[in-house]
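Re: the 316-residue chain
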Amino acid sequence: MLFDPTLCGEVPSSQNTILTALLCVGTFLSYLPQHLKILKRRSSDGISPYFILLGTVGAGSNITNIILLQFIALQCCTVQTYGACVASLLGILQVVIQGSMFYITFILYMSFFPAQNKYEEVVDSAEPETDSESRPLLLPRGSSSRGPASVEWQTAMWVAGAVVLHAGICVFMSVLLVTVIGPYAAPTRTWASLLGLFSLCLTCLQFFPQIIKTWRSGSVGAISIPMMLMQTPGGFVFAYSIAIRPGVNWSSWISTFVAATLQCVLLVICLSFEAQAKSQRALESTEATANDAAADAAASSSPAAAAEQASENTAT
């Protein structure tokens, strides 16, 4: 099927355009707290590698899905006014922004992976060997050295390879189908729908590893609560705005809806742990203040007690 300009007559309403534009800005801003927290801590400790894997691969699949299903919006820009073109492309831009921001999270996760978690620590308790000049060849007794790569770091490297491979497959297959048989051919539409379903499956599973990791650790770690406070309600609005756009089927928005629901569960867990941590810090601060006050009181009363004891000794 060739491009038909008569199909470009349907333009999103002004209300939907404004909503989508606001969501684009909100999506971009909502990821900044997560990025800034990793940069501030200089550590991605507490983030599950499987959460990163499923989220990044799902985001890549979702981007490819929306571009292929709304490929006509790209071609319609050649015959539409600038305003109509921008309004038609906001749906694609919305998904691209969300996916790109998650890719940045993946890059930060790998860049600031905790150094102490990369390798197993090896403690050498044996006597050091020496060469002919009596110089030690091995580390002294009780010293530690860097051992083999840890399971967690190996998993992170495997995740990185899988993300790159998936992105390459999405780009190669999509370009091949669009250029060889066309963007509106049945195989191309089927490929897009399969990517949408794949994204749905990954999104349904995405938050489970992070929920389990956070629950077991009992700590929020590098996960940003402000990010989730913005994204959880925004996710439901996001899914709705995609669903009402012309030419989009349920496979494009259902994954966003499921993600918002599971993120709400993770948010509740993180808020609970954060409240417990604040209570513990307040209790420790109160105990420390009480101990300091007791120590000061004891120190101030010591001279008087010593003087009284000296007076008793003199009287005796």
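The longest strand covers residues 143-149.
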